Amino acid sequence: MNIVVCVKQVPDTWAEKKLSPDDKTVDRVGVDGVMNELDEYAVEEALRIKEALSAQGGGGEVTVLTMGPDKSVETIRKALSMGADKAVHLVDPALHGSDALATSYALSKALGTIEHDLVILGVESTDARMSVLPAMLAERLGASQLTFARKVEVGTGTVKIERQTDSGYDVVEAPIPAVVSVVEKINEPRYPSFKGIMAAKKKPLTTLTLADAGIEADNVGFAGSGTEVTDFAARPPKQAGQIVKDEGDGGSKLADFLAQQKFI
Amino acid sequence: MVVDRELPSDEARELLALTRQLASEELAPRAAEFEERGECPRELFRTIGRAGLLGLAYPEEHGGGGQPYEVYLQVLEELAIGWAAVALGVSVHTLTCHPIAQFGTDEQKRRWLPDMLGGELLGAYCLSEAQAGSDAGSLAARARRDGDAYVLDGTKAWVTHGGVADYYDIFCRTSEDARRGISLVLADADTPGLLPQSPEKKMGLRASPTAQLVLEGARVDADRLIGAEGDGLRIALSALDGGRLGISAVATGVAQAALDVATAYARERQQFGQRIVDFQGVSFMLADMATGIEAARALYLSAARRRDAGKPYGPQASMAKVFATDNAMKVTTDAVQVLGGYGYTSDFPVERYMREVKVMQIFEGTNQIQRMVIGRSLAAG
């Protein structure tokens, strides 16, 4: 079974995220980039599936796919050092400004160049938090859509997941090829090993431009995006909290407050 | 504060970045509680073992990381910034691999070394005895040849990882010969007659178990003898210098952690309307602490580079051990002083650091023994 994991480099989770005033996109240059945290779980799950299948004598490879500027290669390296076999980097200045819809188109074209049965990715990225890409990607690929997976089981020609819901989980099964998005409950991502870091440097990395992937320039970037950021403002500073003095009635004051906020 | 290090290669830089991540995410958050409970974080050793940190200083052909001591020691220092007991454990484990890597036959290396370096196993090194500490050559535990095995009897003492180790390097007496009376065997932990006792109750480093190992007719296959019969003391002595550098690096890491806490506190704490770091009395203390740490690091790295270049480095290793551990004792004591009353409580880690480094002036050769080694090298001219 061949698995592709889509990963994204995002600004460091703890860093202050900024939008560039010029084109209103996330500033990815001036901050430390890290692999989107949920994508680490996706990489881990892909590796576990591959390891389990290979223990039963099955074959297949895990390929990492990312779309992003040159710097994103750091995130590719990280996935390779965790144990992925090879990587594809879709990088082209014309992709800058792509929204979720345009990104799903570009990724689907890049996926067309990689043999795969399963695509795994995190349910959302920490910079955009749209959580729509897995569904769009499945639609573009004509593949089964299995989202919010907290457990994945690969059968013969099918994939079964436990789909996380607010109240519990649903069991969903669908035929391969499939796109699976994962939540953090699914596993505990491994640390890369020192040997993995060394080996990552020698693993195959293919770079694709728009032309290489057969992507039409009109469908990506600002021009190809259906949404537009028209304006943005800095988050207002935190308001001072309300201090409740306990004069023997602290408990009921707190309860009133929670009721007012509709928490209880 | 991230220590800005001089490293010889890109791979070393990436290794140190991985180590820092492990130290800050896996080690530091657990240290205080495990130390309080006196619990060995055995699973954590597997985590860092899988990352490749338990075999760094050994050749890649046997599954090691192929790193020079210059890099390996800085990994130890970074681990110690997170948690001294784990860094010490890595240093001790590395020491346990030395005899077989240096003196083992090809067959022995092929059979045992990959597992020892692979990260899943943890080793223990049994040289000292109750009556044989600094004077290791006077050890009394016996190994008697019986057919195709040695039968071990006696009691080893101060065994780091005693009771949790997967294998033991055991030095025993095989004859009364003053120079060639000691031999080394490598015994599996599940060997019948190998009886680790309850851990000692210690002042610090309580997450690193130290125990006696009672040998009661333990039969160890003769092909587990490392080197020739009688080579034991020579093997033990050859491992000492590397171990001393390991402790130098660990002590430097704990000192660095103490400085980091003290500096952060002094920049935060206000008295008389200003930060205490702006009082010269405090600032000079921090300056001396930082200077001592920088000097300790430079000294152990200078000795390590001699080792990596194949030069003799025994006196230099002793100098690094004396200086780094005495300095760590002073730095951690001063860190408690900077934090004042708060430093004396277990709400802050500095009192623990102070307790942890005390023993580093004692083990791997007391600092008095180190000075003797340095003095003798001067006397010999």
Write the layout of secondary structure elements.
The complex is a heterodimer of chains A (264) and B (381).
Chain A: E1 3-7, E2 9-11, E3 33-35, H1 37-55, E4 62-67, H2 73-82, E5 86-90, H3 100-111, E6 118-122, H4 133-141, E7 144-154, E8 158-164, E9 169-175, E10 178-182, H5 194-200, E11 205-208, H6 210-213, H7 250-260
Parallel strand pairs in A: 1-4, 1-6, 4-5, 5-11, 6-10, 7-10
Antiparallel strand pairs in A: 2-3, 7-8, 8-9
Chain B: H1 10-37, H2 42-50, H3 69-82, H4 84-103, H5 106-118, E1 123-126, E2 142-146, E3 149-160, E4 167-173, E5 182-188, E6 194-196, E7 210-221, E8 225-226, H6 232-268, E9 270-271, E10 274-275, H7 280-308, H8 314-339, H9 350-358, H10 367-380
Parallel strand pairs in B: 1-4
Antiparallel strand pairs in B: 2-3, 3-7, 4-5, 5-8, 6-7, 9-10
Helix pairs in contact in B: 1-3, 3-4, 3-6, 3-7, 4-5, 4-6, 6-7, 6-8, 6-9, 7-8, 8-9, 8-10
What does this structure look like?
The complex is a heterodimer of chains A (264) and B (381). Chain A is built from seven helices and eleven strands. Chain A has helices at residues 37-55, 73-82, 100-111, 133-141, 194-200, 210-213, 250-260; strands at residues 3-7, 9-11, 33-35, 62-67, 86-90, 118-122, 144-154, 158-164, 169-175, 178-182, 205-208. In chain A, the strands form two sheets. A nine-stranded mixed sheet of chain A has the order 9-8-7-10-6-1-4-5-11, with helices on both faces. In chain A, strands 2-3 form a two-stranded antiparallel sheet. The model of chain A has no long low-confidence stretch (mean pLDDT 93). Chain B is built from ten helices and ten strands. In chain B, a hairpin with a 2-residue loop joins strand 9 (270-271) and strand 10. In chain B, helix 1 (10-37) packs parallel to helix 3 and helix 6 runs antiparallel to helix 9 (350-358). Chain B folds into three domains: 10-118, Butyryl-Coa Dehydrogenase, subunit A, domain 1, CATH 1.10.540; 123-230, Butyryl-CoA Dehydrogenase, subunit A, domain 2, CATH 2.40.110; 234-380, Butyryl-CoA Dehydrogenase, subunit A, domain 3 (Up-down Bundle).
